[in-house]
Amino acid sequence: MKINQQTTENTLTLSLDGELDASSSVLLDTELTKPEVLDYKKVLIDCQRLNYISSAGLGVFISHLQRFQDANVKLVFFNMQEKVHNVFEILGLDALMTIVPSEAEATAI
Question: Where in this chain does the record put each STAS domain (predicted)?
């Protein structure tokens, strides 16, 4: 999996490309753990090219939820493929996390 970063003054966007499984989740966790991530008001996760997410990948996001909330950083997912979105729904994570259809909606939050 590849992770591409884009930043603006208040927003960090991570574009995920490939499969988020046990091995690649370490890479994502490393990115989200960096102290400077909390300097942004929003962390947007572009899932357009995310083909698969395992429990380890979901665990990375879950493990950072409280840290982001405590720092008042919004975590927003967008462009999620239906099969990936279904995993979030089945596990009830769509109620815990903000998931919107488009980048425009994610940026507007």
Answer: 1-109
Look at the pTM and tell me if it is higher than 0.85.
Answer: yes
Q: Is 45 in contact with 85 (CB distance < 8 Å)?
A: no
User: pLDDT means per 10 residues in the chain (109 residues)?
Assistant: 95 98 96 96 98 95 96 97 95 95 96
Q: Do the Cβ atoms of 96 and 90 come closer than 8 Å?
A: no
Are the C-beta atoms of 69 and 61 separated by less than 8 Å?
A: no
User: Identity (one letter) of the amino acid at 2?
Assistant: K
Domains of the chain: 2-108 (3.30.750.24)
CA distances from 83 to 17, 48, 57 (A): 15, 11, 15
- Burial class (CB within 10 angstroms; exposed 0-12, middle 13-18, buried 19+) of 38: middle
